Amino acid sequence: MKVIGLSEYGGPEVLRPFELPDPRPGAQEVLVRVLAAGVNPVDAMLRSGQLRQMYQGKTPPFVPGMEVAGTIEEVGSGVNPRWGLVAGAYVVGFVDNLGSHGGYSEYLALSARSVVLAPTGASTAAAAGFLNNALTARNVLDAFRLPPGATLLVTGAAGSVGGYLVELGVSEGLHVVAVAAEDDADLLRSLGAQTLVPRGPGIAERALKELGGPVDAVADAALLHKRIAPAVREGGQIGILRSWDGDPGRGITVKHLNVRERDRDRDAMVRLRDQAEDGTITLRPALPFDADDAVAAHIRLEQGALRERIVLTFDHGN
């Protein structure tokens, strides 16, 4: 099978096709024929070498990709028949990628607990780009355990993770404060954000002024770290999605969160799929690239200011 990966770290140009043996599903696994794979910032971190410590001792090619959409090709033994994971089923899957096991692959053997039926009516490209980011948002909110009425500030609120934090937070009765570019105001209102604070210098002070006081928690999707910490109340919480060793003081709890911890949380994935179907969360428009154009896809990823989800598509010779 074809995969898109790398044998050395560097810029987008290091990505290229490789041929690997076709995988087979083991017990409690399914084989997914990948039609599209989401492209995320963590993929660029792998490609550039920022995650090299994870890959020490692994044999290249290293294959990025943490989310896919496709059809089930084969079902291993012991898969719960009530889950609907039968041959031909249209599914999305979370990929805890490592070494040559990654979403940029024509076929993937995945734990059945990491695979759920795709949202009804969703295109392959749109379906491929929601699960990782929605599950990341779910992981943040579960860690915070905020009661209804609490105030949640979301940085990078117009991005995919930020958007799902806004929508899920609103659905759970939180007062959501969105930090993003002024041009994204209409998008954020459509997602349900109650208060908008334009990003830029002095963001914590401007948020405090707008709200008349501090927030209970910050979901820091934009990696503002110490710049946003003053907006959090004493004893509040900050959710960090990448490494930060800062200490904001004032009894604020810094929670370092990694979505890989939820890689087999099937119940959470089913709930997110259901919420995509009932409109609680919104699938972002897709920006598809052919898998052979992965270099161009990563160049676009690094340019930023994306409101679509980049995905790689595999045509399997069709």
UniProtKB/TrEMBL annotation:
Enzyme class label: oxidoreductase
Keyword Zinc recorded: no
Matches recorded under CDD domains: MDR_like_2
Record has Transmembrane as a keyword: no
Enoyl reductase (ER) domain boundaries: 10-312
Keywords for the protein's UniProt record, in alphabetical order: NADP, Oxidoreductase
The protein's Enzyme Commission number: 1.-.-.-
Signal peptide as annotated in the record: none
Domain of life: Bacteria
GO molecular function terms noted in the UniProt entry: oxidoreductase activity
Family annotation (PANTHER family): QUINONE OXIDOREDUCTASE PIG3 (PTHR48106:SF18), QUINONE OXIDOREDUCTASE PIG3-RELATED (PTHR48106)
Protein name: NADP-dependent oxidoreductase
